[in-house]
Amino acid sequence: MNIFLSKYINNLDKKGRVSIPASYRLALSSQSFNGVIVYPSFRNKCIEGCSLKRLEELSQMIQTLDPYSEERDAFETIILGEAIQLTFDGEGRVVLPKSLIEHADISDQACFIGKGLVFEIWQPQNFETYLSSARQIAQDNRLTLKNINKDI
């Protein structure tokens, strides 16, 4: 399984093009299309990115909810309805839609954050603010992270 790791900052040009980090493109290379799925995060002021396979897994999770529930409708709308399939150009760039750029408050730089099965795209200063609070939450809750593999 390929996962998304590390932090990268790349420039966003006036046309909304940004280069997806090479390691992220490599993690996405086994899927059926040459690109990435992106959608607005509903947890943070950023964009989430993932593979088509991960989006299919999220869809299957959503399908387990009552078909007429408000929760299912909300998840279908926010994740599936807002998801956009972006194709890489010859240089590994994608064009971020204006609505996503505005959602994440991105102007001239995009900060890519690997989070395992997904990655996020932030406005760099907004990410640094979030990182401070995330560090504190992780520190306060470090004992809740369980080791499910006893051999490690």
UniProtKB/TrEMBL annotation:
Family matches, as PROSITE patterns: SPOVT_ABRB
Compartments where located: Cytoplasm, Nucleoid
GO biological process: negative regulation of DNA-templated transcription initiation
Principal location listed in the UniProt entry: cytoplasm
GO MF terms, alphabetically ordered: DNA-binding transcription factor activity; transcription cis-regulatory region binding
InterPro entries named in the record: MraZ, MraZ_C, MraZ_dom, MraZ_N, MraZ_sf, SpoVT-AbrB_dom, SpoVT-AbrB_sf
GO cellular component, one term: cytoplasm
Residues covered by the SpoVT-AbrB domain: 7-54, 83-126
Coiled coil (UniProt feature): none
Record's keyword terms, sorted: Cytoplasm, DNA-binding, Repeat, Transcription, Transcription regulation
Transmembrane segments: none
Family: Belongs to the MraZ family.
Subunit annotation: Forms oligomers.
Protein name per UniProt: Transcriptional regulator MraZ
Organism: Candidatus Tisiphia endosymbiont of Sergentomyia squamirostris
Gene: mraZ
